Amino acid sequence: MSENILPNTSILDCNTVISFNLEIKSNIRYVGICIYNLDTNEFSLCEYIENEHFTTLESILIQCRPSCFLFLSSNDSIDDKRIKMILNLCEIKLEELSKNDFQSESIENDLNKLLKENNIKNYISFLNLSIACKSLCSIIKYLSLLNDDSAISKCTLKNYNINEYVKLDKAAIISLNLFQDKSEEKKKNANSITLYSFLNKCKTKIGERKLLQWITHPIRDLKKINERLDMVEILKEDSVTRSIIQSDYLRKVCDLQHIIKKFKLVTNTINDKKKISRNKNWCTIEDLVKLYDCIIVSKKIYYCLSDYQGRYRKTLENNFLNPLKNIIISFDSFLKLVELTVDFEEIENNNYIISRKFDEHLEKLANEKDHVYNLIKEHKIEVEEDINFLKGTKKIGTKEDIKLVECNTNVFLFRAVKKDINYIQQRKKVYFQVRMNKSEILFHTNKLKDLCKKYENILYDYNIAQQELADKAIQVACSYWEQVIKLSEIISEIDVLCSFALASTSSISSYVRPILEENGRILQMKDSRHPLLESNFLLMNNFIPNDVYMNKDDKRLNIITGPNMGGKSTYIRQIALICLMAQLGSFVPCSYAKLPIFSQIMCRVGSSDIQLKGISTFFSEMIEISAIIKNADEKTLVIIDELGRGTSTYEGFGISWSIANYILNKIKCFCLFATHFHEMSNLEEECPSVINNHVAAKIDKERKKISFLYEIKKGYADKSYGVHVAQIAKLPKNVIDKAFEKSKELESVENRHYFKTKLKLKNLENDQINTCNQYQMHLKNIFNVNEEKEFISNVKESYSALKEILNEI
Q: For the chain, percent helix, then strand, then coil, each to nearest 5?
């Protein structure tokens, strides 16, 4: 495939497996899905009825980003092919399993062993999801969870509600440029502006992951959206608090997701001593200190937010202050453990060790170690004085003529500069050369050797004692991994909301809080702008804002016509992007925005947005538009751009007309339809719920040049100005001139047909017939010509008469 639809995985740690089970009954596709998160041991189940395009599956894959997809081949080869095509597009590993892997006879016993709460009666509702339970069984067998100590009695089970989030199809992901995909990563196209990169002002890795999760999971719950907007408004208005939280606190938060993995691994293998020994370096005292610092920072964030006493205080308390306070309290014992066991003075030297004061035996060994080390340093001074005596010099200041260096073989050696080799060799029986380098000589003495041996023995015992105490401290600390998950969740959300607030204040133009309605029938934006294009430094202060007003009753289909490059595509994309941002909980680039809650955003944009191998551009268009027609509902936002370019003009126009008419009268959802067929504007005459808009352009007739105004105005455009755009692209002058000549010729023929059609008298009233008869002979003379120039001349001369006739008709 030429493109894929999943985000750049460099910012993700995907550790999710999905199992998919399809059963077809009476031509209806019943799907059961199980999603398993290996990091949290969480099973999520759902069942639903799928369509022939598998758009719901596609949306779930976009949201969950699994590392592996378990699949049982169905009896329908076409369905299997479509599923594999989606997986290939997403670059997800496919594992085809046998029917035996999806047997669910032992599901109750298996869950009793795996779930934390081993009373299966509490999960009866999940057992009723028979198709999804088969998928769950396949994951248990595939991952051998019943033989995995990290899973036994540690799993949880929940429902995955597919209607909780806005469904995004693959075209929406790409055309709205939501995030950098894998193909762009391979091309090293890291400079492209995406919604993710635009909104990403996060200071933590966990915040970046949370932002990506939110972008792929726009929410439909109005209460949750408004709670996010409340927080963004708090942080937007109080820039000082936001700046302190971001600059002073959040930047000090480590990657808690990696800490969680390490803690969970130790906890799950605590009874396997060999495994703990093998993996002990996966979690260290340094990790405990990092978490300790995060908790201290979390306290500061809590106190910083606590000062707010505005109108959204209740939202702040319920969603952040109270949960954060409870989490911090739950870490009290952990904080005491770290403070009691860790040597904080050594941390300044980047040494993460157990404090000697924590254990008497450790303290004794540490004191012995220090004593021997001091003897080694004293011996070094003796050697230094002896060498200086041989040289006939004295030590100057604090300069060290002989240095003590660590060596793996002998623990410590003396090092001198090469010019002192003669003095060292004078005492060959005292100083034993070990190695000579380019500019230095390494040597030892018998006394140093004995001291090093003693030091090495004490150090060995000391390190064992350190490791034993560290392992115990780590084992106790790692039992807090579930609390760390909660802390990570709330800190990452604060980071994202701060990022939203900063993004809305960083723009030159204003951002506003959107007004959202559960079953809203109005889509209205004033001074709307494309957030990604506006942020481009080349367009700063030059982006033209535009309004939009649509309502479900009589203005739900917005047809936009006008010249190529005039801004039609940008306009419809920015409206969809603003609607998406609103359901993320972000402020939007408008001066006013009133929006409904959308269930899905579906796009048919561009002629080859997702080019499939072996499939023509036009057929690809038809597949995408078919998915929209069959799956869109009244709460869907549909944007369609330049449909029908891959076939003849008449067929393309016919398809565009019929699809627009179907969306208008059958689906009855909000739809923005940008088209180069300006004849589409006639749909307004047939259907009252259509509104026509066009992108404005200024034509210099003498120079045959076009200037784009990028303004959306009411009414329709009667031309596409394609030749003018070709002129901008610097096609050869003779080609442009010929194009102008041919287009005028075709337009004149079209105009003749239009006038003749208008003058048919069969259905006219008597008074209209009398009026037209007065000019009938005159008009026959106008059309009774063979040359184009003569026709144009006659029309100009009789313009007033023609205008009067048409008005009468």
A: 55, 15, 30
Whose tokens are 């190695």? That residue is 435
End-to-end CA distance of the chain: 57
pLDDT tens-digit map of 251-271: 999 999 999 988 888 877 765
Distance CA 754, CA 617 (A): 33
Distances (CA, A) of 533 to 172, 312, 539, 540, 590: 17, 32, 7, 9, 14
| CATH number belonging to the domain at 9-162, selected among 3.90.1170.50, 3.40.50.300, 3.30.420.110, 2.60.40.790 | 3.30.420.110
Bridging pattern class, strands 670-674 and 636-641: parallel
Residue of 319, 267, 256 whose CA lies nearest to 293: 256
CA distances 207 to 49, 63, 250, 267, 494, Å, are 34, 17, 9, 25, 8
Residues whose CB falls within 8 Å of the CB of residue 532, separated by 6 or more in sequence, listed in order: 177, 193, 194, 195, 198, 577
**What is the average per-residue pLDDT within 557-577?**
90
With cut-offs at 50, 70 and 90, classify the pLDDT of residue 542: confident
Residue owning tokens 């350190």:
466
Contact 139, 70 (CB under 8 A): yes
CA 742 to chain centre: 48
How far, in Å, CA of 458 to CA of 233, rounded? 60
* Six token digits for residue 779: 């008009």
Please give the Cα distance from 505 to 587 (Å, whole number).
10
Average pLDDT, the chain: 84
**H runs (alpha helix) in 7-117:** 55-64, 77-90, 107-114
Reported pTM: 0.82
Write the CATH number of the domain with boundaries 357-461: 1.10.1420.10
